[in-house]
């Protein structure tokens, strides 16, 4: 689908206005960042970059798009002609998908003619906010599962087809092992996984007949759903009968799925029955409106679970369904000269960071342990000793001296005019990047409840530039 019209009307209205009022090719830089972490976490897992790059590479206005815009009777013919022949000339820098990113840090920047980059705001935020939200939720859920595979089961509850497909992709970036969503599995090379629904069991005269029919067709994929009638009185005993028959025929039974009731009590009793019957290797999968909180509770109770199937709470990030990433102007060329730009807000919290920027992750020297990030102006060289200022205006000890670190720049160019982009597209490689990046962060920042805040600083140059622009604004 061509997404060129997937924007808010005001972006076109501004672009048409820029076309009339400002030099056409003057460049602008916008930053994408967010301020608040979902679920009171301390970081977001950045995701959606592959789709951003694809959307920008295919960005074109079709003749009927132009006709539609003309029909609004808002825009000049010159501007519509500009759109009809538009080829984006934008440079995008971004941190790699899967990277944990903290509040206020630019995770993506776009530079290009002001008219063009203004038009991209809504689409870029749509792509990045959604996938980063779901990847972040999946990280929480898979952390709670402590290494047990999590299958993404959310297609039926996702808020529309796109949310199910790209949500499944993001879920894998955040740690899921597989998806039941066949389209997502095909598009992103994710293992397709699944069991059966209650309707299968109900479609046969009785549960045992239903299990036998399944086992006959899928003798090596027999994960039987045991809660249609009574988990312990019929579901597990019938599953054991079928497992014995499968074993006698030379097959290895997979296990059972429990989808209702007190999962801990049922899983403990089912485990005992399976073990007593000689099937200690049969796996128990749990599903039913699970999320990280329920999973933690189940595991704390000692529920002997091997796999999880997780739908609605993951695919909608139900407990915290919004990531409010924003797109803010950071610099503008005026007569060929760059000017840093700022939005000064009533609250310091919402005041933006001006200028072209770079984000560095700081490590203790010779180690893989990160202890802070620092946002710098893109053209400054980090000194060995930095009198850094907290990026969080709420922090009381706002100034610290940073020394003895190695610095890793996080933002790199992923798209430039005339160059084909090569961002990683292997979702499991991206998942691995996320996993490794997390092992380098302090463990306490990854707690699911009350995580430690990870320090993010500004260089003195960036902090001074921000203050200078705030002061200049107040003098006006
Ligand atoms: N031991 C447990 N500790 C905490 N939460 C649990 C436990 N067992 C199940 N849950 C969760 O409690 C919620 C409600 O479970 P409940 O027993 O009401 O399901 P159910 O109504 O039997 O299922 P269904 O409506 O699908 O038939 C679900 O989110 C489930 O995952
Ligand atoms: O609960 P989720 O995390 O979204 O996991 C997916 C759910 O989808 C199926 O339920 P179904 O649509 O058959 O409805 P049900 O709630 O009656 O089982 C399945 O049995 C799970 O319960
Ligand atoms: O395969 C399953 O068990 C499944 C898939 C989607 C939703 N619920 C269950």
From TrEMBL:
Residues 5-129 form the Nicotinate phosphoribosyltransferase N-terminal domain. InterPro entries: Aldolase_TIM, N/Namide_PRibTrfase, NAPRTase_C, NAPRTase_N, Nic_PRibTrfase-Fam, Nic_PRibTrfase_pncB, Nicotinate_pribotase-like_C. It comes from the Bacteria. Keywords: Glycosyltransferase, Ligase, Phosphoprotein, Pyridine nucleotide biosynthesis, Transferase. Pathway: Cofactor biosynthesis; NAD(+) biosynthesis; nicotinate D-ribonucleotide from nicotinate: step 1/1. Residues 357-465 form the Nicotinate phosphoribosyltransferase C-terminal domain. It catalyses: 5-phospho-alpha-D-ribose 1-diphosphate + nicotinate + ATP + H2O = nicotinate beta-D-ribonucleotide + ADP + phosphate + diphosphate. Transiently phosphorylated on a His residue during the reaction cycle. Phosphorylation strongly increases the affinity for substrates and increases the rate of nicotinate D-ribonucleotide production. Dephosphorylation regenerates the low-affinity form of the enzyme, leading to product release. CDD domains: NAPRTase_A. It is an enzyme of class 6 (ligase). Its EC number is 6.3.4.21. The keyword Cell inner membrane does not apply. Catalyzes the first step in the biosynthesis of NAD from nicotinic acid, the ATP-dependent synthesis of beta-nicotinate D-ribonucleotide from nicotinate and 5-phospho-D-ribose 1-phosphate. NCBIfam families: NAPRTase_put, PRK09243.1-2, PRK12484.1. This is Nicotinate phosphoribosyltransferase.
């Amino acid at each position: 689908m061509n997404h060129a019209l997937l924007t808010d009307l005001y972006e076109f209205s501004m672009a048409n206005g820029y076309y009339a009022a400002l030099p056409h090719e003057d460049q602008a830089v916008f930053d994408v960042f967010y301020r608040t972490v979902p679920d009171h976490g301390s970081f977001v897992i950045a995701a959606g970059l592959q789709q951003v790059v694809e959307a920008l590479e295919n960005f074109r206005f079709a003749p009927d798009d132009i006709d539609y815009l003309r029909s609004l009777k808002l825009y000049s013919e010159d501007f519509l002609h500009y759109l009809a022949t538009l080829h984006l000339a934008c440079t995008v820098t971004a941190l790699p998908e899967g990277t944990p990113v903290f509040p206020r840090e630019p995770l993506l920047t776009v530079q290009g003619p002001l008219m063009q980059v203004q038009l991209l705001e809504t689409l870029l935020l749509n792509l990045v906010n959604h996938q980063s939200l779901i990847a972040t939720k999946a990280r929480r859920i898979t952390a709670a599962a402590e290494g047990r595979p999590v299958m993404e089961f959310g297609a039926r509850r996702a808020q529309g087809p796109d949310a199910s497909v790209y949500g499944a992709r993001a879920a894998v970036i955040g740690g899921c092992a597989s998806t039941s969503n066949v389209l997502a599995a095909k598009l992103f090379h994710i293992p397709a996984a699944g069991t059966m629904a209650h309707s299968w069991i109900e479609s046969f005269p009785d549960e045992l007949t239903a299990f036998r029919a399944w086992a006959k067709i899928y003798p090596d994929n027999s994960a039987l759903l045991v809660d249609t009638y009574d988990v312990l009185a019929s579901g597990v005993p019938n599953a054991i009968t079928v497992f014995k028959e499968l074993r006698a025929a030379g097959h290895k039974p997979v296990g059972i799925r429990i989808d209702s009731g007190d999962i801990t009590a049922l899983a403990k009793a089912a485990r005992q029955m399976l073990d007593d019957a000689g099937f200690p290797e049969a796996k128990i999968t749990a599903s039913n409106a699970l999320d990280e909180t329920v999973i933690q509770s189940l595991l704390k109770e000692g529920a002997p679970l091997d796999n999880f199937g997780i739908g609605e709470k993951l695919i909608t990030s139900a407990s915290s369904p919004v990531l409010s990433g924003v797109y803010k102007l950071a610099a503008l060329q005026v007569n060929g000269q760059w000017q840093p730009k700022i939005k000064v807000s009533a609250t310091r919290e919402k005041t933006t960071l001006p200028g072209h920027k770079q984000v560095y992750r700081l490590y203790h020297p010779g180690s893989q342990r990160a202890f802070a990030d620092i946002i710098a102006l893109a053209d400054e060289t980090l000194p060995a000793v930095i009198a850094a200022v907290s990026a969080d205006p709420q922090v009381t000890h706002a100034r610290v001296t940073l020394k003895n670190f190695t610095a890793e720049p996080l933002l790199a160019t992923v798209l430039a005019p005339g160059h084909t982009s090569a961002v990683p597209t292997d979702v499991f490689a991206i998942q691995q990047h996320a996993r490794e990046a997390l092992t380098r962060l302090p463990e306490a920042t990854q707690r699911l409840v009350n995580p430690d805040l990870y320090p993010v600083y500004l260089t003195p140059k960036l902090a001074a530039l921000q203050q200078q622009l705030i002061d200049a604004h107040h003098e006006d």
